[in-house]
Amino acid sequence: MRALRILALIWLTSWLLPIESASAEPHYSGTLHAGYALTRGNGLGMSGRAGVARAIDPHWSVGAEAAYSVLPALNDEGYIDVVVPRFDGAGGTFLVARSASGLVELRDSNSLARPYIVGTAGYCELTIRTRFNSSRVAEDVARERHAEFSLGAGVSGPGHVMPGFQLRWSHLSGMDRSDIASDALSFEFGLHFE
Predict the structure, then answer these.
(1) DSSP 71-123
(2) Nearest to 132, CA basis, from 88, 96, 83, 75
(3) Mind listing the pLDDT tens digit for each residue in 144-194?
(4) CA nearest neighbour of 65 among 41, 23, 100
(5) How far apart are CA 120 and CA 168, in angstroms?
(6) Parallel, antiparallel, or unpaired: how do β-strands 90-107 and 116-132 relate?
(7) What is this structure's pTM?
């Protein structure tokens, strides 16, 4: 609940900050990205994120972002449903991470490639699912909540709808499990709307 209050405060603050001139209209932008997430020792997963930001000057924007990732745990067989069970053991574990964050973005709007740096801080809920190779044993589901922050860099083309690419490092603080990596590196392609 604290994270939602922090996000609301960041969003309200972005509306109260002055824009570049008194007569200028507020400038909003949005992003949609999808790609792959790589975790140390855990393997390759999928990630996606959507964000909305408001420009507070020609290069700086603040806003909010939501992200969704599916990542394998140490046993990466979690994506496979075994049709014919052969023993009563764990079939695999995978993670679903949902996060909501405030974001700050620094963008060079004058160049053709439009490079940018983005940082986020917020809240992440992990759903840890363990599937078993037996039809007699139900799936085990656990949930954990953690603070999350990320840093990223990317480029996007010029225009109102711009294709782009970004590289993002995310960290979950307070992870005390040995079977789940607290860091993920994502390679994402997407669109930037202005």
Answers:
(1) EE-SSGGGG---SS--SSSEEEEEEEEEEEEEEEEEE--SSSS--EEEEEEEE
(2) 88
(3) 898 999 999 999 887 788 899 999 999 888 777 666 677 888 999 999 888
(4) 100
(5) 10
(6) antiparallel
(7) 0.74
